[in-house]
Design goal:
The protein is of the alpha/beta class. It folds into two domains: 173 residues, Glucose-6-phosphate isomerase like protein, domain 1 (Rossmann fold), CATH 3.40.50.10490; 118 residues, CBS-domain (Roll), CATH 3.10.580.10. The strands form three sheets. It has a five-stranded parallel β-sheet. It has a four-stranded mixed β-sheet with strand order 6-7-8-9. Strand 7 and strand 8 form a beta hairpin. Helix 1 packs across helix 8. It is elongated, with a radius of gyration of 27 Å.
Length: 315
Amino acid sequence: MSSINVGKVVFEVQARALEAAAGRLDDSFDQAVEMVLNTSGRVVVSGMGKSGIIGNKIAATLASTGTPSFAVHPAEAYHGDLGMFTAEDVVILISYSGETEEVIRLIPSLRHFGVKTIALVGNPDSTLGRNSDLVLDVSVEREACPNNLAPTTSTTVALAMGDALAVALIERRDFKPHDFAVFHPGGSLGKRLLTRVKDVMHTELPICAPQDNMKEVIMTITQVGLGIAVVVDHGSIKGVITDGDLRRALYNHDSFDGLTAANVMTHSPLTINEAEIFADAENIMLKANVTSLLVVSQDSALSGVLKLQDANRLN
């Protein structure tokens, strides 16, 4: 089998495992989300080996999305780092077998502290599963490894379960891009989250009037170079004309003769206030599957045009 085909098989095996894990989600998942929401402490994540690496990522994702969290190596915890835990914390313990010695040894101490535990295990009836407050089933039919030994599919499902928890918590906390910016001030991501629309919008405006003929519209689009024309009448935005609008008009008519901007424009185009952050504008464009937004001022007057590719200017 070629390496490409091997790679495809790995993707297929893992995709099936993720789909199966999604189908097994039950009330325990809801309860885990509620447990984290209701705690006044932190979420502490712990696992050995590959599970520990997955735990580090889960903790990092939680911490960056509004849930105070950190990872602890179980062996280090057993040799002094248990002092990091408090009774208010929630601990996520990861062990596919549910029998990992270093993880199991933490349970008596966690019980003594009164810490609530969530187990990510492949065997809910394992020692870890039986002795945890909640169990999230991350079992898989087999590993992608041809010997069914190296943690591959199982770590992918455990990681996805952590991501599912994080995203569910984002929804429940109503965690917005400006909240995300607080934890991500650096790099291109930080720029997206802290930059205002007015800082990157194009201010050379491709404006045409409703009565303009199609030659005038096309000239406006070409001269400004943003791929659109904004139809404005007495200072009020009436519509927008994109390349797609031009193609549809040509498809529906034998020629452009007699057509005006008002005949081919898209009414009620998407707009965004110039004071909004760029990340919000980017999300609107991606969800609506558009590449441009009209930018308006506080008094709803057209003040600029924002393009999806403007994100590249923030890198």
